[in-house]
Amino acid sequence: MDEELDPVIEPISEEEATNLLDKYVENASPETGLVKGKIVKITENEVLVNVGLKSEGIIPIDDFNSVSDFQVGDAVDVYLDDIGGARGLAMISKRKADFIKVWDDVKKAYQEGIPVEAEVVRRVKGGLMVKIFDTESFLPGSQIDIRPAREVDIEIGDKFDVRIIKVNFKRRNIVVSRRVLIEEEQQARIEKFFEEIKEGEVIEGTVKNITEFGAFIDLGGIDGLLHITDMSWGRINHPSEMLSIGNKVKVKVKRVDKEAKRISLGMKQLNPDPWKNIQERYKIGDQAKGKVVSLMDYGAFVELEPGVEGLIHISEMSWTKHIKHPSEVMKVGEEVDAIVLEADEKARKVSLGLRQAIPDPWENVQEKYPEGSVVKGKVVNLTSFGAFIQLEEGVEGLLHISDISWTRRINHPRDTFDKGEMIKCKVLSIDPKERRISLGLKQLKGDPIKIFVEKYPVGSNVVGKIYEMLPRGVIVSLGKGLKGFVPFSHLAKENMKKPKDRYSLGEKLKLKVIEIDVDRRNIVLSEKEYFEKQKEKYEKPKSHKEEDSLDAMMEEGEE
Predict the structure, then answer these.
(1) pLDDT tens sequence across 329-352
(2) What global pTM score does this model have?
(3) Strand (E) or helix (H) holding 256
(4) Contacts of 336 (CB under 8 A, 6+ apart)
């Protein structure tokens, strides 16, 4: 910016201006000062003026706002600096004369802050030159408007009010501002607005800006915030779903903060609250239809009516299936029928159930599958701890691995069953509340150890076939899947350090039952006591009849 138009020059007081003026003309002759002259010649660059002296004075053509308004012979006010300059011409200035003539008006307007009318003369670097009181002043670009200067449409010849903000007599410099008047006008409008606005009032505004959290509404120079949660009683994901910039909207004033100059607005409040008397419209047990609007890990939200959503918790989606995510059952946009489980106006909550819309297969399950009854079902799942047996759609029972066999050690149910296989089981227990049924397969037959006890109590003689040999004795098979143990000290053969020195796998032994623990399923046998009771020596050869009798006993005991 040129030094002549420097807008940061500090203003001067009336006394300082007077001193500068006195100093400026202190060496002038009595003939110097503000005088009247006559135009005698106009050239392309200069205007020759006669001020009543021996020589004329020259004024640059630029000192005239419009030279076409003047012609030879016209009178013009000039300031006489010197009666004889370097070229023998009088030193005169029209600009100084103009300034001095309007100084009182400029001074008063500046000191009292009185707005004055300005007319745009021309554009210059950094702003505009405007005319006030028939003298030029500088209007910086930053002082044209509260908006950026590039957005302001101003033409040469436009007129508007400004305020003088800086004055420098020595430099003949006046700086004015249009912006301060606009800001004052805006501030006054804001103050008046906040004095008159009332909470609960319905007003109209224009959508000025849209963000993720809401929209700013222009209420006539004052912006109010319409939060996304106050746009609709229903669910919206982004304000742009309802509003566009430039839309005219009616809003309700929710809150007014006069100190912070903030206004909170609401649009949904213009309509009745849909949660009012919600219990009357959605009674417990009623069937309700709605559209799925959102799926969460814990459940699905269903829109029952605009602004009212109910939650179907994942636990209320199926009587029988273990639902890991609601998407397994429904999708967004789908229409569903549900049963109202709870409606709470205060908490603004409606709980819904999907499974309640169909009969519960566990209802009267005790009557259909009483304890002790034999049932038939399909193997639907095999786990390390047992097999799940489907008795009917939605009703499954657990056949625990320990209830598959009385005698065999089951490592995994898949060693015994195939998925999809139909099997018979016995109902051991049933808990409708916990939705559990315990099944047993081995219970379809009698416990072989109890049968054995009845037939071969302690002291009875039996036949066993060596199944496994251990350092501390041998395990023998007694038939029906039962095993018995013969301790080393109860083996009859002599001269051995371990059983395999004198015995062989599959060898049949005559034994006496010496101990039975039904709970631990242990049977202890003795070969020695058998022979002592029979008063026989082990070395005595067996007759063919005795061999046949022993084989018959083993065959009877085998499964």
Answers:
(1) 999 999 999 999 999 999 889 999
(2) 0.45
(3) strand 248-257
(4) 289, 290, 291, 292, 302, 312, 330, 354
